[in-house]
Amino acid sequence: xxxxxxxxxxxxxxxxxxxxxxxxxxxxxxxxxxxxxxxxxxxxxxxxxxxxxxxxxxxxxxxxxxxxxxxxxxxxxxxxxxxxxxxxxxxxxxxxxxxxxxxxxxxxxxxxxxxxxxxxxxxxxxxxxxxxxxxxxxxxxxxxxxxxxxxxxxxxxxxxxxxxxxxxxxxxxxxxxxxxxxxxxxxxxxxxxxxxxxxxxxxxxxxxxxxxxxxxxxxxxxxxxxxxxxxxxxxxxxxxxxxxxxxxxxxxxxxxxxxx
Length: 260
Hints:
It is built from five helices and twelve strands. By secondary structure, it is α+β, with helices and mostly antiparallel strands. Strands 1, 2, 3, 4, 5 and 6 form a six-stranded mixed β-sheet that branches. The longest helix has 21 residues. It is elongated.
């Protein structure tokens, strides 16, 4: 059901949302690991009706000239028409690029992976970690769900074997896992009128004035922020959003404590 903004604001004034949740309540969370056989690591995450797959591929590459002593990390979100009628085939959209960059920044700035331990030969050969994020059903809050799927896929990743000539054998895996150090969680708050909403669905997202995505570490440190939407946020808004994000990141981690 889609309603106009005036009707939504009247509901929010009463503390109600379209699906019956509280303003700062998550939808039901489901997740599983190892769902893609051809990937080195994978995960499926479903939050409400938003369902996302993430897959990790490992390859041996030449390092970037400015980081010869570090491995490579790449994140790409693919917004396919299968997941939502407004997505189109073709080059990555502005939305897809933003989702990719925000999740990449959280993982990179949160030091989730020890990239120095991915070096094979300094300046010559390093492991490259490519994360593909694909929603198969889109109903809002893709950044948060995509980051969660990416981190679970990284946690599930196992290195393939490499022969004496340095050629990767993707059919045979080792027992070696990625050198993960941290677990950033992204919490996005949307502002609609005077109200702040957590884990918005697509209808609420369309009517949102602006949003703030906050990447939070396990010790409540912040490692990345991304503001979106046309309308501004006050310092009071930002302070409140940061406090909510920290609190809700702890709530989300409890649901994942077996992995995080």
